[in-house]
Amino acid sequence: MASTKNVTELIFTGLFEDPEVQRVCFVVFLPVYLATVVGNGLIVLTVKVSQNLHSPMYFFLSYLSLVEISYSSTVAPKFIADLLSKVKTISLEGCVAQIFFFHFFGVAEIFLLVVMAYDRYVAICKPLHYMNIMSHQLCHRLVAGSFLGGFVHSIIQILITIQLPFCGPNVIDHYFCDLQPLFKLACTDTSVEGLIVLANSGLIALCSFLILVTSYIVILVNLRNHSAEGRRKAFSTCASHITVVLLFFGPAIFLYMRPSSTFTEDKLVAVFYTVVTPMLNPIIYTLRNAEVKIAMRRLWDKKENSGME
């Protein structure tokens, strides 16, 4: 079967076929991607240099922002460049690499969101033991575990993919490489592989989402025992996290927990969680978090003062 792998280059159909619409998309999505990199990069920098943001919550937030940059960068630059190309091509090796890093950073983000929910659970439900439980060492282990989980998940996906024979056609009905569109090009029945991928991707997303929902129900129940000011502050922080969770998991569950299709609507949903959502996360966290806004303002003032000297 390996000898039939004579496809070396793949062609994307893209998001839209109309060149005018593609140019409009280029003008829209290029600033969105740049805002993603700058916004999330600013959060990473702010957390690193600000003494007031060295708590576990902001430690995890900085890694989430770092993952957002990496996650978006596996798809967005190629997608945006292709909007100005007549023929959108990628090598088979490049396609496999894109699948690996897309799933690696995507699942790492899922686990980081679960870790952040656990951090909020400990902070609200066990405040007296918070610093002992969420030690510096545990925080690093939880982040390392998130990346390890993403790596194991991606390796499984890639081991399934590289065994498939690709002998033509070579046109992917999508704007980036993902497993289901690629499986349709294989010269063999991929129903078993499809089920394994559904179990691997879908169950991780679904189980993590259920864990997150359960944890926030427990947190909201425990908030009844706090003062009005404590409830307001805790709810503000949790609301930001819940919003990010819904923005990330909603489209992902919609696409991965149902049979695949080639509808343009599916591609638009994919654009939302690969390009738009990573830009929204820093906005959500900074708009609802006074400490981050204050730290960013101090960072900006420090930069202006150093520039004037």
Could you please describe the fold and organization of this structure?
With 309 residues, the chain is mainly α. Helices cover 75% and strands 3% of the residues. It has a 3-stranded mixed sheet. It is globular. The model has no long low-confidence stretch (mean pLDDT 84).
Give structural attributes:
single chain; mainly alpha; Rhopdopsin 7-helix transmembrane proteins; 3-stranded mixed sheet
Layout of strands and helices, then pairs:
Elements: E1 9-12, H1 19-49, H2 56-73, H3 76-82, E2 88-91, H4 92-125, H5 130-133, H6 136-162, E3 171-172, H7 179-183, H8 191-222, H9 228-256, H10 264-288, H11 290-308
Parallel strand pairs: 1-3
Antiparallel strand pairs: 1-2
InterPro entries: GPCR_Rhodpsn (IPR000276), GPCR_Rhodpsn_7TM (IPR017452), Olfact_rcpt (IPR000725), Olfactory_Receptors (IPR050427)
Protein name: Olfactory receptor
Transmembrane segments: 26-45, 57-76, 96-118, 138-160, 203-223, 235-256, 268-287
